């Protein structure tokens, strides 16, 4: 691979973005374990290369829709720590003024139309956003993130059919982390997920979701094609979630082994894979990468402290935003 | 002032709003060349092309979802749902998505879409094409619900719905598409949350939604012959509901019959009757009577189907009983 200044900076950015997500999730998990966070949350750790590889191929006006496992998508599309942690803790300065929480973070200023707590629930929204772009003759692209579990929802096939009929600028990004909640993907998906997209005449690709550079290269290519009206596309990204279905899913050996988890963490970690590449190419030293990690960790700790001390919404907000006043 | 059908009124409202705002588009099954099975949208595709009058596959959750996403990003879609019964197919997109997005995002996102659909039995269409399911969506915070009772209301309420920044579900009575009413030449909009008093009276208040307004008006004529002077109110929208107009009327008449074509159990009549009982209790001289559709799936056979829907005769009969002081149970 040819080295140049642009690539160097870009690779370091990929590394930082993935590290931000990992560090965010580590802190969110700790907030849960310390009983400082209301409710539950779903960790994105292990899947960072998917969100970062794809979102780095997008510009701000491009849209994404996200899932219950959505913190990674938010961060990758430009969200900041303070508002993220505030939302997780139900504080008024959060992205949704504390009304959405972990599963509903939306950041429309960065083109994030929101996470969705209904599995597959955002597939229509994403496709509608692409329809809007086409109606407006804009070249914005929408990426619909969803998991392998969501491929069992009928909505996906309805909207892919329309996206293909109308050549909408959308990329369906299936994060296949091997598990549909507490069940292996093999047990819930008959045949081939990619072939399902191909049946609609949609070009579909499989990519190693732990290799951020490969993800980014494929995504960049497809985004450019979609901008020119050649969409839709479908990508299946093979990845892994380090935690359980949610933070409370601790005892999970009944559906997957610790050995398997360790194998992915030790041998297929997206941040380590990119880190080794950066070191071998002489782009960054181990010490420099450690420094990136500690800087981001400090920023995250500050943001957690900020959020813990931030104000809750005034109780008068409980019936605010049911309707938008005209 | 020309007299036009409810179908023409809806068509005019859509056309006028599409001319006014290029963000408005129409989407649904067979809305373009076919103009829907009720021929409500005929001619629109000629003026606005297939770009803005979009025929979809038979995928109700799919095109409902598309409309939500398009609305969130700046469009103002009008979704045509061919039969109100198909609401059950779009519940996730309508109730979990569209209704909640503004609130869940802390007011940052909004979903300005209109879902046009219909209600009404006695078309001999049996259980899956005859339901009146407005109470179902009225139960979900974040959705507005309009129930036009004639061509005049249909046009004015639809135009208001299209300009509203929230998801609005508007129910047209499928038996009224050919019914005519006078509609002004000049542009007009009807505000949400303002009921209409169609006939003033002093003895009993008849509250009727959608086509039950006409049932109440006919009942009032029957009652007049018995010397009972009924007031007739059409709420026009049930979310928001104009409680004041209803309460003020009942405070005057001290009696009320609430008539609606949705099923009676847990329905629109229950909500309105309960508000009257809570807020005008000491003004009442009789129990508030509810009359909804019978709590059975709508049957096909005409002799059975006709039993399920309130009629003017039965409304008048119940009104007579509460005016005379005889306590009754509702239909």
Q: What is the overall number of helices of chain A?
A: 12
In CATH, the topology of the largest domain in chain B is named Rossmann fold
Poorly predicted runs of chain B: none
Tell me roughly what share of residues is in helical segments of chain B. Answer: 25-40%
> What order do the SSEs of chain B take from the amino end to the carboxyl end, as H and E?
EHEHEHEHEHEHEEEEHEEHEHEHH
CATH superfamily of chain A: Thiamin diphosphate (ThDP)-binding fold, Pyr/PP domains
Mean pLDDT of chain B: 97
Largest sheet of chain B at a glance?
7 strands, mixed
Determine the N-to-C terminus distance of chain B. 39 Å
The CATH architecture designation of the largest domain in chain B is: 3-Layer(aba) Sandwich
Oligomeric state as shown: heterodimer
- Compute the CA-based radius of gyration of chain A: 19 Å
CATH C-level name of the largest domain in chain B: Alpha Beta
**How many structural units, i.e. domains of chain B?**
2
What is the helix/strand order of chain A?
A: HHEHHHEHEEEHHEHEHHH
């Amino acid at each position: 691979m040819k080295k140049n200044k642009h690539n160097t900076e870009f690779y370091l950015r990929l590394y930082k973005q993935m590290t931000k997500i990992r560090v965010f999730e580590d802190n969110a998990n700790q907030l849960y374990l310390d009983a400082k966070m209301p409710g539950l949350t779903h960790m994105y750790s292990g899947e960072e290369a998917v969100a970062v590889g794809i979102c780095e191929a997008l510009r701000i006006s491009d849209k994404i829709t996200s899932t219950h496992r959505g913190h990674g998508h938010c961060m990758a599309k430009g969200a900041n720590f303070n508002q993220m942690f505030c939302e997780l803790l139900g504080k008024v300065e959060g992205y949704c003024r504390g009304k959405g929480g972990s599963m509903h973070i939306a950041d429309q200023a960065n083109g994030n139309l929101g996470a969705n707590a209904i599995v597959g629930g955002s597939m229509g929204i994403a496709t509608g956003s692409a329809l809007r772009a086409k109606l407006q003759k804009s070249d914005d692209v929408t990426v619909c993130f969803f998991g392998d579990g969501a491929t069992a929802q009928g909505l996906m096939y309805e909207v892919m059919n329309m996206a293909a009929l109308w050549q909408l600028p959308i990329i369906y990004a299936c994060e296949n982390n091997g598990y549909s909640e507490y069940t292996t993907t093999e047990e819930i998906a008959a045949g081939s997920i990619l072939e399902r997209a191909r049946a609609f005449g949609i070009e579909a690709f499989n990519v190693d979701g732990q290799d951020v550079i490969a993800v980014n290269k494929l995504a960049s290519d497809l985004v450019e094609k979609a901008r020119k009206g050649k969409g839709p596309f479908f990508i299946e990204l093979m990845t892994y979630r380090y935690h359980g279905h949610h933070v409370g899913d601790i005892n999970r050996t009944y559906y997957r082994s610790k050995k398997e988890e360790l194998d992915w963490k030790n041998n297929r970690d997206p941040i380590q894979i990119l880190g080794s590449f950066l070191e071998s190419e002489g782009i960054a030293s181990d010490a420099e990468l450690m420094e990136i990690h500690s800087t981001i960790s400090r920023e995250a700790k500050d943001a957690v402290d900020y959020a813990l001390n931030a104000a809750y919404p005034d109780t008068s907000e409980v019936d605010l935003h049911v309707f938008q006043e005209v | 002032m020309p007299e036009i059908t409810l179908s023409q009124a809806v068509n005019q409202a859509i056309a006028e709003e599409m001319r006014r705002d290029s963000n408005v588009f129409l989407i649904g099954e067979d809305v373009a060349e076919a103009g829907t099975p009720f021929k409500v949208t005929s001619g629109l595709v000629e003026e606005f092309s297939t770009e803005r009058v979009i025929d979809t596959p038979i995928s109700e959750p799919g095109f409902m979802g598309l409309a939500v996403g398009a609305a969130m990003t700046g469009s103002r879609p009008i979704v045509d749902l061919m039969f109100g019964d198909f609401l059950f197919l779009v519940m996730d997109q309508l109730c979990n998505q569209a209704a909640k997005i503004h609130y869940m995002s802390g007011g940052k996102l909004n979903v300005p879409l209109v879902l046009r659909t219909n209600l009404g039995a006695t078309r001999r269409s049996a259980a899956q094409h005859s339901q009146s399911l407005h109470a179902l969506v009225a139960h979900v915070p974040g959705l507005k619900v309009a129930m036009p009772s004639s061509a005049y209301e249909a046009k004015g309420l639809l135009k208001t719905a299209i300009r509203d920044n929230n998801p609005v579900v508007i129910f047209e009575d499928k038996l009224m598409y050919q019914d005519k009413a006078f509609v002004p030449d000049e542009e007009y909009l009807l505000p949400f949350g303002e009921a209409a008093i169609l006939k003033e009276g002093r003895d009993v208040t008849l509250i009727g939604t959608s086509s039950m307004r006409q049932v109440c008006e006919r009942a009032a004529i029957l009652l007049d012959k018995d010397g009972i002077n009924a007031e007739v109110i059409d709420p026009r929208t049930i979310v928001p509901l104009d409680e004041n107009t209803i309460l003020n009327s009942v405070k005057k008449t001290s009696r009320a019959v609430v008539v609606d074509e949705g099923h009676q159990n847990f329905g629109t009549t229950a909500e309105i009757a309960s508000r009257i009982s809570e807020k005008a209790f000491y003004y009442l001289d009789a129990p508030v009577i509810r009359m909804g559709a019978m709590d059975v799936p709508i049957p096909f056979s005409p002799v059975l189907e006709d039993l399920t829907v309130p009629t003017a005769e039965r409304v008048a009969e119940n009104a007579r009983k509460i005016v005379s002081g005889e306590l009754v149970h509702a239909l």
